[in-house]
Write a structure and sequence with these properties.
Length: about 230
């Protein structure tokens, strides 16, 4: 039987992973699929997690198991699981070959995680999102694992952007419909036109310091409840 070149097999695996990532419904689903796929795709990986660093706080957004779920506030003396994560603001990859080197004493070493491969997913002025693969033996991740990891995170980033846009569009449509319903209720209740009803809604939102969609939902829910009571009374 002829053997396919490794690059071809890798391309097939990444294509399959991309299909699974783009088939997810929400950004959270995309992140969950990504950590599961990372363990299957990255040579040497035993665990994986996706973490976000924002305003000095680190929290894990998705994880394969509780061993790699971190929630740390560095401003209050928290022990970050990866001492070099700050480098990911400027470089796409940070690799830990042995967390026990130099005496250990860090979060990874304490958990028995000797190797880590951290790959940047997103970075802007305020927030850094990182996918990290972990292993219990030292020097688990080589250049091949790093190469596969960088290709994989490119697919994850694209799928995450796509899922985020879909979620935003869906929320925008829901918000539009909700505001439209609230506007209609106010038109009937106050005997005003659409422009006047919307202006009234905006002013009430500003006055009460409540988001427009939340105020609209409150009006719609109150109206639905009133109609329900009216039906029951009849």
């Amino acid at each position: 039987m002829p053997r396919f070149p490794v690059d071809f097999e890798l391309a097939e695996a990444l294509t399959s992973a991309a299909r699974q990532l783009h088939g997810t419904g929400t950004p959270d689903d995309t992140l969950t699929a990504a950590v599961q796929l990372a363990v299957r795709l990255l040579p040497g990986a035993e665990h994986a997690g996706i973490s976000e660093i924002q305003r000095g706080r680190l929290r894990t957004l998705a994880w394969t198991d509780e061993a790699v779920r971190f929630d740390v506030d560095s401003r209050h003396g928290g022990c970050e699981p990866h001492p070099d994560w700050d480098r990911l603001w400027t470089t796409p990859v940070v690799r830990t070959d042995d967390s026990d080197a130099d005496g250990g004493g860090n979060a990874l070493s304490g958990l028995g995680l000797r190797s880590a491969l951290s790959l940047r997913l997103r970075a802007d002025r305020r927030r850094l999102t990182v996918l990290t693969a972990y292993a219990r033996k030292p020097h688990a991740f080589d250049e091949d694992a790093t190469h596969v990891g960088r290709l994989f995170t490119a697919h994850v980033s694209l799928a995450l952007d796509s899922a985020t846009v879909r979620e935003q569009l869906t929320e925008a449509m829901r918000t539009r419909d909700l505001i439209g319903q609230a506007t209609g209720i106010l038109m009937e209740r106050l005997t005003i036109d659409a422009a006047g009803a919307f202006d009234s809604l905006v002013k009430a939102s500003q006055r009460e310091n409540v988001k427009l969609r939340d105020l609209a939902r409150r009006i719609v829910d109150a109206n639905s409840g009133a109609q329900g009571r009216g039906v029951g009374e009849r």
